Amino acid sequence: MSTDSFAWITPHWPAPTNVAACMTTRNGGVSQGPYHSLNLGDHVGDQAPWVAQNRALLESRLNLPSAPQWLNQVHGTQIIELPYNGPQPPQADGSVSRDVGPVCAVMTADCLPVLLCDKAGSVVAASHAGWRGLAAGVIERTIETMAVTPESLLAWLGPAIGPEAFEVGEDVVQAFVSQQSDSQQAFRHTSENRWLADIYALARLRLRAIGVANISGGGYCTFHEPKRFYSYRRDKLTGRMAALIWLTGQAQI
């Protein structure tokens, strides 16, 4: 078993008292090799018993009320509502819960995890926002599924690839600028047909455009912190972290 201590990030945001949330790091599990150590992805080539043990560690260390609802993420905009009784795992890039118990979860290794809740503590959501999903409207679709006013929402942006490491082509720039002209500010031109993209800034612009003003998080770089985070762009063969959010009861006013 790994000697790493189980480590996670607790969001610093003004969420209601009945909203619990966390983001795992790569530390605290049993996986070996390129997946060292708390790999939670069962689709990346890691040994299934190690992944199962890591997921069990996650549930016990965080005292989760239920097993997280894992998704088959495809960089799309499909959002499911929990509890979910369909095929396992469902093909989706986000989930929403209004009930105490179900745990919304998205896995990442450079893509942006976005956690959402309303100020009343009545609904929570987790969204997987890689650049394709972000440009396609995964955050907007998640908020639409939450069915509360965007002005009532709080958002937390979890660890993703940082603006000094996320090199993209003109196609990515146009995917955003063609929809929202001020997205241009989130890109820095470095050479012919190459740009550095700030996925945190892109997410904030889209959230604010639909009325979400209370946005926390950001500032991490999965690519530049190999001892703390998995990064697909850095390593290709690597594990996955998870961003989790769930309701624990009624909010205390």
Feature tags:
253 residues; alpha+beta; CNF1/YfiH-like putative cysteine hydrolases; 6 helices; 21% helix; 25% strand
Structural account:
This protein has 253 residues and is an alpha+beta fold. The chain has one domain: CNF1/YfiH-like putative cysteine hydrolases. The chain is built from six helices and 14 strands. A six-stranded mixed β-sheet has the order 4-5-8-7-9-13. Strands 1-2-14-6-3 form a five-stranded mixed β-sheet, with no helix packed on it. A hairpin with a 5-residue loop joins strand 7 and strand 8. The longest helix has 14 residues. The radius of gyration is 17 Å and the shape is globular.
In a nutshell, what does this entry contain?
The protein is built from six helices and 14 strands.
Give the CA-based shape. Answer: globular
Total DSSP E strands:
14
SSE class: alpha+beta
Question: Under the CATH scheme, which architecture would be assigned?
Answer: 4-Layer Sandwich
Helical percentage: 10-25%
Q: In the CATH scheme, what's the topology name?
A: CNF1/YfiH-like putative cysteine hydrolases
CATH fourth-tier homologous superfamily? CNF1/YfiH-like putative cysteine hydrolases
Going across the biggest sheet, name each strand in turn: 4-5-8-7-9-13
User: What is the total domain count?
Assistant: 1
Radius of gyration: 17 Å
Order of helices and strands: EEHEEEEEEHHEEHEEHEHE
Please count the helical segments: 6
The percent range for strand residues is 25-35%
**Alpha carbon gap, first and last residue:** 43 Å
CATH class: Alpha Beta
What would the average pLDDT be, to the nearest integer?
96
* Unreliable sequence segments: none
What is the makeup of the main sheet? 6 strands, mixed
